[in-house]
Amino acid sequence: MRTVRAGWGTYTLLTLFAVVSLFPLVWTAVAASRTNTRLAATPPPFRFGRNLPRNVEIAWTDARLGEALANTAVVAGTVAAGTVLFATLAGFAFAKLRFRFRGTLLLLVGATMLIPPQLGVVPLYLLIARLRWTDELQAVVLPSLVSAFGVFFMRQHLGRALPSELLEAARMDGAGTARTVWHVVLPVARPAMAVLGMLSFVAAWNDFFWPVLALTQTGNPTVQVALTGLGRGAVPDQSVVMAGALLGTLPLLVVLALFGRHIVGGVMRGAVKG
Amino acid sequence: MTDDAPAGAAGMTRTRTATGPADGPDPRGRARGARRAGRGAAPRRVRTGSRWTPYVLVAPFFVFFGAFGVFPLAATAWASLYRMELTAPDERQWVGVHNYARLADDTFFWNALANTVTIGILATVPQLLLALGVAHLLDVRLRGRGVFRVVALAPYATSVAAATLVFALFFGRDHGMANWALGLAGLDPVDWQNGPWASKFAVASIVIWRWTGYNALIYLAAMQTVPPELYEAASLDGASRWRQFLHVTLPGLRPAIAFTVLVSTIGATQLFGEPLLFGSGAGATGGADHQFQTLGLYLYEQGWVNLHLGRAAAIAWTMLLILVVVFGAVRVARALLARRESAREGLGHARSGRSGRDGRRR
After folding, report:
1. CATH fold group of domain B102-361
2. pLDDT digits (tens, 9 = 90+) for B289-312
3. Nearest CA among B76, B120, B127 for reference residue B275
4. What is the DSSP letter of B29?
5. Fewer Cβ neighbours under 10 Å: the N or C end of chain B?
6. Beta carbons of B165 and A230 less than 8 angstroms apart
């Protein structure tokens, strides 16, 4: 951090940036509290109306946002837990253990970050169709459990925070792998695991392309699938569409408000790594 | 991330030779080794449990990675060689490279490719420049800096779907806020949905809104690794804030910029949700005249609207090839640049630039 103090110019520009960042979200709420007729009039509304409960109710039931929210909570929760678990184990091995093919395997993990998973959707779709998983939540959970980013994130953290002496001491004491991981690795890994969990949760909550293919709005939608249905005309009322967008976004905004500092830290830490 | 290595490589070898072999039990190197671990240099490794332990630990990751990462990608190449309908994928028919030959004559494919590149540039360039600016603003002593940083991530926490639905209303032709604001300024309304450029700009603006703050935080993280002494020295030399930004901040940001360009490029080629939902009723065509249909959207239209999975697979594999070619070209360009640079450095041996780069790693 530099010692330069912020002048009023900096504050003005940053406030402008904050307003631009928040305005669409605030306006989503404004639009969700109005009527369709009011949204189709000029000038656009800037103040809250009284229609929020009605619009939310329609979005909740007709557009199935209620079920979608529950589904998404399950999906994002499972994906976050699984990602953290697998990434911690693999990250620990890559950071601290000596084994053959370590470099090759790590390179393979890195390569996945360059290849967008979207490009594998056709066979993936055939696979889940064969398993009769279309419209089942596991169809969107299982492919998301691997995160190359997660492995690198945990490897970086453990490489830095876990002293090799500690592992050697555990080995001298005759601790096996399971005990070492449980009593030595996990306590050190916990802060990074929490951050990775939050980042994975946000990513899984907002995952779009694959869920839109694998799930349908009438079957077992996640929030993004339900919103896609709304956007493609499931409900003609724009104020209801906005109520849906609000419902689908609010949980993550709450997460951000509660754990914002950690998520910011995660984004900043995840980026500087090599 | 992976591409970050070449940028850091020069400095890394220098540090490593100074400390001796990184893997050995070298008490002197320990403190430094811990710090270097994140940069990819090998820290001291130990053994735990049996010789199979490491493999058991990485196995769960690689099982899922194989089943849902490697297998689908490889099988895409296979699927692209068949005529295969979504309704009856088992009645496939070998057609060889027909799906690819067809793409070459397909105006919609070329249109989608051109749109992807155009929207990609319209979205990425302003986004990264704005992010640099915001990061620069945040990189000072600031009241409420935590709040600003969290607010910067609010658009990132907003899903593609939610963001696009709001922006589609903003950019409504008759009663949207964008045209209302233009009207206030005495300008004519713009047809944001149907204008070939206006619609691309509108789609790009959604991407810009969602990712500027995220990238700003990445830049900010990199800026904070620049040692303050460098700024002090620069301001003693009478360098203005702008010149400090150019000559001290930017060089330190090179790996971060490479990283964000890489990630944004990959993201831009995959653009899907924004054009799908911005066209609201139009569905997967990306506007009445396909004016903002991207490759991702065209893939979806071929596979899941027209039900031609073989063709969709050919599009996916072509997208992959395009990415590989782009990365390859960047690699080659970089290698050439590096060679020219090192030749120049060899001539005018290690003056100002070198000291800046070393300082960053201290």
Report:
1. MetI-like fold (1.10.3720)
2. 999 999 999 999 999 999 999 999
3. B120
4. G
5. C
6. yes
